Amino acid sequence: MTYSPSIAFVDESMRQRHGRSGLYVMAATVVTADGVDEIRRAVKLLDRRGRGFHWREAEPAERQAAVAAVAELEAVHHVVLGAGLDNQRQERGRRECLQRLLWELGALGVVEAWLDARREAQNKLDVRLVDTMRVRGAMPDSLRVDHVSSRAEPLICLADIVAGAVTAEWAEGAEEYVAPLAKVLQRHKIHLS
């Protein structure tokens, strides 16, 4: 059997509650490099609007179909749930979730992690975190981390779907979205400082 390195595609979801703490969710869909092209073909079937699949824009039936499709793919999903999000400190919540997620991905032997690109200044904050983690030995040098837009990399939508499903379960009690993912979903809960 030939070794195929693992690649992760990462996106987030956030739910704020007026006057109360919120939740920051960061999800990684992990696939083997050998399986990327086949999974990209499957993901294109989810794109009914020609703009890529986005959880927040999808109707409940579309969300159900997307979750069912994701559950059938040759992929596993790691999610960090950051509870206690201070609405005024969202970037801090992201950093704490990303730090834990990158640690988990490093422990799995993932060699590439592609984060959904945001504004340049925000991407630089992620790069700074990665540099700090490397200096501290909190993630292996073998894990390459970079940003890519979801338009350029359709597999980012898989992490968007997983993050959206987990967030909907937490915020709305919508267990029907995470139930199909039970065998391929690993959750890591942290309390944000």
Task: State the main characteristics.
193 residues, alpha/beta, 41% helix, globular
How is this structure best described in words?
Helix 2 packs across helix 5. Strand 4, helix 4 and strand 5 form a beta-alpha-beta unit. The protein is globular. Helix content is 41%, strand content 27%. The model has no long low-confidence stretch (mean pLDDT 91). A 6-stranded mixed β-sheet has the order 5-4-1-2-3-6. With 193 residues, it is α/β, with parallel strands linked by helices.
Biggest sheet details? 6 strands, mixed
How much of the polypeptide forms β-strand, as a percent range? 25-35%
Main sheet: strand order? 5-4-1-2-3-6
What's the gyration radius in Å? 16 Å
Low-confidence blocks of residues: none
Count of helix runs: 6
Question: Average pLDDT value?
Answer: 91
